């Protein structure tokens, strides 16, 4: 029988978050019901609310979540009732053209639940990133669940579901940072700090954090930044020169843009060494356009990469990173600025906008 529980929705573009009754259907074939224990407040949720993703309102927000499986549908074999899981929005299908050529991290056919959650009047909700986890219970496809060691607290573990995984993966998977390399990270929010942590895990010896706020630069040091640059008031050329100054005049081997604006991408492009790698992991607004001289794209060589979800494979990466956290080698807990209740999500969006938190985490 369906469940009626409280969930956080965005009813229209720019409207404040509402806590309303949501009807969660019985799981269909391949579906799983997960009792949410914690869910991070991610900038992507703010983008959904503000119409920066698409216009399929109303949205059921939330996607960086951990919880426990409480019911399964017909044919489910991937998880069972009682499993402690992190939710992931890339559910590898194994059948699309990306999967069949061995590039599972690009799976083009991500699976979602077979049934929709609704308002009590029957209005269908669009779950953020196919998950919708600012809610007491959610319905997802079984492949959207990754079982991990339950010794990791849910408010920490759930962050791997999006932002932290995106940043770590941008460094390790997409940027392919190697031991002894130099890395610059532009933007020291949750994703940027995760990229710094990933670069440290990979063995980078020079890790440069760039941001507009001194407080965020200071926080970046606890994740592994060896140098910091406050770019407030600096021109593009000055930012590039500052990166080069800290890398023997050459530029960084890898520059990660965790902001996703044309000006920060140009800083990344010119702030790398010849044949260096640029990684874009910050999500740009759909209206942003980039202008670069094509001769510079050709002449500087290297690689320009976009990092989708940190190019992760949840079944491989989530358990590994949880193990590193439990071993004390990855400070996931430092990403949690505060734990809040669901009725404080709107206020948490304001803190994201002001840059005063890495992650607010809703606990249930």
Automatic annotation (TrEMBL):
GO molecular function: mycothiol-dependent formaldehyde dehydrogenase activity; S-(hydroxymethyl)glutathione dehydrogenase [NAD(P)+] activity; zinc ion binding
UniProt keyword annotation of Flavoprotein present: no
EC id: 1.1.1.306
Gene Ontology CC annotations of this record: cytosol
Top-rank lineage group of the source organism: Bacteria
TM segment ranges: none
Keyword terms: Metal-binding, NAD, Oxidoreductase, Zinc
Cofactor requirement: Zn(2+)
GO biological process, one term: formaldehyde catabolic process
Domain (Enoyl reductase (ER)) ranges: 14-362
Keyword hit for Iron: no
Pfam families, alphabetized: ADH_N, ADH_zinc_N
Family in the record: Belongs to the zinc-containing alcohol dehydrogenase family.
PANTHER family: ALCOHOL DEHYDROGENASE (PTHR43880), ALCOHOL DEHYDROGENASE CLASS-3 (PTHR43880:SF12)
Name by which UniProt lists this protein: S-(Hydroxymethyl)mycothiol dehydrogenase
